[in-house]
Design brief:
The protein is α+β, with helices and mostly antiparallel strands. It is built from four helices and five strands. The strands form two sheets. A three-stranded antiparallel sheet has the order 2-1-3, covered by helices on one side. A two-stranded antiparallel ribbon has the order 4-5. Helix 3 crosses helix 4.
């Protein structure tokens, strides 16, 4: 189905873009500061080609990023990725086992370091670090400290 498009975020002078993207629906209006430092008003967004397959849109996005160049490579674009390699739309696609393991290990590390919180729908990390000591799980940590698991969890959040 040809529902994708490629768009540009244009500078105030309209002579050059500062971001190239691929999207569908309202994607070009839904940017946040993590992806692009300056999300434009809608008057400076140009859809340069519409009604494309995802593969064609990814290819054009990649070519435009290569043409204009990313700032980190000496170009003018704020794009963090080279584009065209991996679609952000993972509907119907599966990560490889290697990728799943990398994601899992990264999440576990971030949870142990307290950089992300465990949500209700994610399993508790198997390793618990509390007061500088490492325990194999919450139950063992609570028993070693002589407190309940609930108390341990509350103290870890503090």
């Amino acid at each position: 189905m040809n529902k994708f498009y490629v768009y540009l975020f244009m500078r105030d002078d309209f002579y050059s873009p500062y971001y190239v993207g691929k999207g569908q629906g309202r994607r070009c209006f839904q940017h946040d500061k993590t992806r692009c430092a300056n999300s434009p008003n809608k008057n400076r967004i140009i859809k340069i080609k519409t009604e494309m397959s995802e593969e064609d849109a990814l290819e054009l996005e990649s070519k435009l990023i290569l043409f204009w160049g990313r700032k980190e490579d000496g170009g003018v674009l704020q794009n963090k990725q080279e584009g065209g390699k991996q679609p952000p739309n993972w509907t119907g696609k599966n990560h490889s086992v290697e990728t799943k393991n990398k994601i899992s290990e990264t999440r576990k590390k971030l949870m142990r370091e307290g950089k992300i919180k465990v949500s209700n729908n994610l399993p508790t990390p198997p390793v618990v670090v509390f007061q500088g000591k490492t325990y194999p799980n919450r139950k063992v940590a609570a028993a070693a400290l002589g407190i309940s698991v609930a108390t341990l969890d509350r103290r870890r959040k503090e």
